[in-house]
Amino acid sequence: MEVQEMKKQPFSKVSLEEWKKTAEASLKGKPLEALHTATYEEISLKPLYRAEDVEDGDAAQYPGEPDYRRGFLKGGYMEKPWRNAHSLTADSPAQLQEKISTAMKAGQTALSFSGEVSARMTYGDFSELPLDEQPLYIDMKDHFLAFAAFLLKKREQKVSGAAGTDIVSLYAQKGLVPDKNILNLYIEAISQMTEVLPQLKTIRIDTAPYQAAGANAYQEISIALAEAVFYIELFKEEGWTPAEIVEKMHIHFAIGSQFFMELAKLRAFRKAWTALCEAYGLAGDSVKVTVGAETSAFTLSRLDRHVNILRTGSEAFSALLGGVEFLQVTSFDQVNGQPSPLGERIARNIPLILQNESHVDKVIDPAGGSYYIETLTSELSQKAWGYFTDIEEAGGILAVLKDGVLQKELAAVLEKRKTDLALRKKSMIGTNVYADINEPAPTSAPVPEVLLASKSVSSFDEVIQSVEGDVSAAELHVQDSGAEIIPVKAERLAEPYERLRARAEALRADGKDVEAGLICLGKLKDFKPRADFVTGMLAVGGISAKTSGECHTVEEAVQFVKDSSLPYYCICGADASYEQFGPQLAEAIKQSKENVTVDLAGRLPEEAQSAWTQSGLNGSIYAGQNILEKLANLLDLLEGESAHE
């Protein structure tokens, strides 16, 4: 066939019905719904999306136009580049100065640093920072009043960017709802900074603490909206207009590991945000709010920590496709305390790679028009709006925090996430699957503890007057006060697995063998699949596997037990081997060694289970099992054995 003829050759068109029939045939009797994926957002993801799935007009929108799902700017990053805002840590303000200089020369485009170094800063330290060279992107946390006082004393009107504290989420983490005195101090500080620092966004809404407590995507959006209503109403009482309040706001999200869901979350937020602003009579530029993001601490692991580089890379990519203005990429080793210079360099370079090698900044809303992403955006925004209105009907964000309703709902999602990891319905590479048992125990670089003062003040002016000499931000801290609530507690998904590994490492440090014996029945091809599965699962708990050779008789299996003399064994083989050896294998092993525990890989048929149990079988290791519970029990066994030696 000639090339010209090839060019004219048409592709056959396949109808949706034909596709469904072919898909159902491949499922061998299962319904097409078997290909759907349930999410924590209670959204069912389909295997195929088409134009008819997209709501009328959604895919036809342009960037820079309402409902702003495609971004607030028509030119996207070509009109206004994102800011690389890695949060720097340091042991001292002097070291921070050095790190800022290095970071700015190496591609960082926003000034950002952690609360720990902020606490040790005096006004003298603060005044030496290059505040007018790059925009700020700082979560002031507990040091908001002190830093506000520093900024007002310096009176550098060129300061731009976003710097503030979300007083609601900060106090929620402490188990408090801020009282009137705290809120009045907050209002005074914001009001004075607005007069002196007109370019700085000082009203921060931070949903990262809620995400770290388990929140799903639509809950994060809803909480952001509910907090926005709280701040709008708070400042309206002081005579501010909604437009003036929104102009001073910046919204901060944490971006998790579900790539498309997180991308859609940012787009859905803008759609829901537009609806909220319209309810306050805002339109056009008055709707446009600054949005920043960090790669999630919730998804980081101390185990096989270099995998965190892949996690943060994916999360950063998702954030940029979602259109954030400020991006903080977390260091891969930050979970161990102070990040290393390498960790900070990689975190800073990830956005640079996405910019200079992937050219993400050269495409305006690349996700726009995707039937899947547009549908997901609409579904998320609808769910978020419904959940937001539920919060408002219950009295607003402070009311649901006081009642504990929000905390309980976040905890329910968190528990589902934990259970899915424990059952291995979800994977965390290097943590609950593909664990590297030979990995050295991660070393920690402790973050120096900072003691906060508890000053009692009646006005923000008193804080400003205290800014003198060597007084640090920590010494200017105002005493926390407010009603007690259930804390919004930040967790990491990997923590239970890190605790298991720590238990195993503690046994090894005492000179104990943290080992399990694998009795392999039949030929290699028969036992290898289950032996590999058990070996991998044991590694998650820090337990190494000692395998027998091919055991073709009960006597060979018993001899391996006698030679290895371990407290725990797992029989691995094909179903046919289990039938061949029978329950007498477990009985023989139990008789050959005192206090030995015997499990079997896989699940026995119900009719065979009773005989094996009566012969001394303890239990099984199988796919779909709660590995946290199983591994904790095995470590209990090994610790008990160690105590009796």
Automatic annotation (TrEMBL):
Residues 39-123, 126-463 form the Methylmalonyl-CoA mutase alpha/beta chain catalytic domain. Coiled coil: none annotated. GO terms for molecular function: cobalamin binding; intramolecular transferase activity; metal ion binding. The keyword Isomerase applies. Keywords: Cobalamin, Cobalt, Isomerase. Belongs to the methylmalonyl-CoA mutase family. This is Methylmalonyl-CoA mutase. It comes from Bacillus thermotolerans. The lineage of its organism: Bacteria, Bacillati, Bacillota, Bacilli, Bacillales.
